[in-house]
Amino acid sequence: MVIADTSVWIPFFNRPDSPEKIALDMLIDADEVALVGVVLAELLQGCRTPSERTTLSESLLALLYFEVAQTTWLRTGDLSAQLLRKGVTLPLSDLLIAALAIEHDCRVYSLDTHFKKIPGLRLYEATLA
User: Fold this and answer.
1) What CATH number labels 2-123?
2) What would the pLDDT profile of 61-97 be if each residue is shown by its tens digit?
């Protein structure tokens, strides 16, 4: 299972020939994409019209969805503290995505390279053949 970050959903929706669109289409067809709340919120904030919001939310809500539990917040805080001790500051939203991925044994598909700094996180590398 793969949690797709906002950074790959944006080209998915806006650039039909992008590698991210091709990779996400393959993952969706294989039922391998999970959605998390922070990504949903980030994508919805970019909607320009109510109809765009409805179309987007209906499409995304068909995916497997992972809720945030108290234990997820604890893991998020622990990841942040561990990285801060190394002098690395990452956005809370991305730390939350990482915590959910670790909790659910998923990989993260993102264009943001700072995910590589998160210990214990597995990343999805799109291979388009």
Assistant:
1) 3.40.50.1010
2) 999 999 999 999 999 999 999 999 999 999 999 999 9
Q: Which long-range contacts (CB under 8 A, 24 or more apart) does 54-57 make?
A: 56/13
Helix (H, G, I), strand (E, B) or coil at 123: strand
Using the 8-state DSSP alphabet, how is residue 35 labeled? E
Determine the Cα–Cα distance for residues 24 and 19; give it in Å rounded to an integer.
8
Sketch the domain layout of the chain as residue ranges: 2-123
pTM exceeds 0.85, yes or no: yes
Kindly report the length of the chain. 129
Buried b (16+ CB within 10 A) or exposed e, 48-78: eeeeeeeebeeebeebeebeeeeebeebbee
